[in-house]
Specification:
Number of helices: 16
Helix content: over 70%
Shape: globular
Structural class: mainly alpha
Radius of gyration: 22 Å
Order of helices and strands: HHHHHHHHEHHHHHHHHE
Strand order of the largest sheet: 1-2
Strand content: under 5%
Number of strands: 2
Distance between the termini: 33 Å
Largest sheet: 2 strands, parallel
Length: about 400
């Protein structure tokens, strides 16, 4: 599964770096059309997380994951066949759906296989995935020096082939044990209660809502920092890609060491307090970057990038552990699928939040960091109440042998 993460993210790095350029220069879409395409396909893809998780509670996980990888490969290859806007939207939405569902199922596989070591496994996986992103991004940057239509098409082909390779590697993985699927005979009594569902679990839904806010660090690096620097009169414009590199290097170097502070559910919950401080510091540093010259701007922007990267790594550890700990074993797929909605929703909300902070100026960035910090404290109390509840006994979903 670590090899799969490396191959998958390397391919995604190839496409993520050039997707906007491909739709602009190869298919001839306008800026408004590209933005609408990304927004609509992302909105449709949100459904992939809960549906993928629910299916994985009923069917063999590896088979579902292979199907999703094939769907992603076909969707990528299909983009090469047309410049029709409606078809590009359909194919992009299919790829987005497969991407969100595959992310949830990969997490579910790790949860079932790694057991009590799931936090360390997640940290190693994130390290490998970030290395893959960097490798794909560097390859794309080299290909962009050519700047021809063929170069863009080969990058998209490489993305599709990475999904094919991931599917082949998944086929070599054993099916993990699942508490949600047991074998029943005709002599076993039929279940008298329905399986647990996250849609009726108000506490878990509230937790997912707070997670949507905590995932906003993703929008800072993808949208916030580049735009803030681009519209700054003091900050060097070449600083934006350097801060992205800094983010990537920090995750590769520090994600695994930091994971040891959240190896239990109680420890992961405790990390929400330093996480709150990291978000607040990131917002304040962004605001202070507008108060001086080039040196001051560079210093505070770098400080902000470091703070938000630390927040990203801490939240990755906390989110992984708590999303699993709060989910009943008999419905892990369904619960983790609903948790996946938080990251999916952030992809739509995040750009709006950071652009609002940019439009408001330094005060906006201070409010941005403070809002996430307060949400961390609220989640700290919310999770305590959820973990203290008595776990209901729920019978597993049965699969008859007749």
């Amino acid at each position: 599964m670590l090899w799969i993460a490396l191959v998958d993210r390397t391919g995604s790095g190839l496409w993520a770096a050039v997707s906007v350029l491909y739709f602009t220069y190869v298919t001839g879409l306008s800026v408004a059309q590209v933005g609408t395409l990304a927004a609509l396909s992302g909105a449709i893809g949100i459904a992939g997380a809960p549906l993928g998780g629910r299916i994985a509670d009923r069917l063999p996980l590896t088979r579902v994951l292979i199907s999703l990888q094939i769907l992603r490969a076909l969707a990528s290859l299909a983009l090469l066949t047309t410049d029709n806007y409606a078809l590009l939207l359909v194919f992009s939405a299919a790829g987005s759906f497969g991407d969100r569902a595959a992310n949830v199922l990969t997490k579910l596989y790790a949860t079932r296989v790694s057991g009590p070591d799931r936090v360390r496994y997640q940290a190693v996986t994130r390290t490998v995935a970030n290395a893959g992103w960097a490798l794909g991004g560097l390859t794309a940057a080299a290909a962009l020096t050519i700047g021809t239509t063929t170069a863009y098409q080969w990058l998209l082909t490489g993305d599709a082939l990475s999904f094919v390779a991931a599917a082949l590697l998944t086929a070599r993985c054993a099916e993990p044990p699942s508490p949600a699927r047991t074998i029943a005979t005709s002599k076993d009594p039929a279940p008298t209660t329905r399986p647990a569902t996250p849609w009726r679990d108000r506490g878990y839904l509230a937790y997912v809502a707070t997670e949507t806010v905590l995932f906003l660090d993703d929008a800072v690096f993808k949208v916030g920092l580049p735009l803030w620097i681009a519209h700054s009169d003091q900050a060097p414009h070449g600083l934006a890609p350097l801060l992205m590199v800094l983010n990537n290097l920090m995750v590769v170097a520090l994600q695994v060491p930091l994971a040891r502070f959240g190896t239990t559910t109680a420890a992961a919950r405790s990390l929400l307090l330093p996480l709150s401080a990291a978000f607040a510091l990131g917002g304040v540093a962004m605001a202070l970057s507008a108060t001086g010259g080039a040196f001051t701007a560079t210093l505070f922007l770098t400080t902000s990038a470091v703070a938000f990267t630390v927040a990203e790594m801490l939240h990755a550890t906390v989110s992984w552990e708590l999303s699993v700990a709060l989910a009943p074993g008999t419905a892990q797929g369904a619960y983790l699928g609903v948790h996946g909605l938080a990251q999916s929703a952030q992809r739509s909300i995040g750009p709006l939040a950071v652009t609002a902070a940019i439009a408001t100026g330094p005060l906006g960035w201070t409010a941005f960091g403070a809002t996430i910090a307060v949400t961390c404290v609220f989640q700290h109390h919310l999770v305590r109440d959820q973990l203290s509840r008595t776990v209901l006994s729920v019978p597993p979903v049965t699969v008859s042998e007749h």
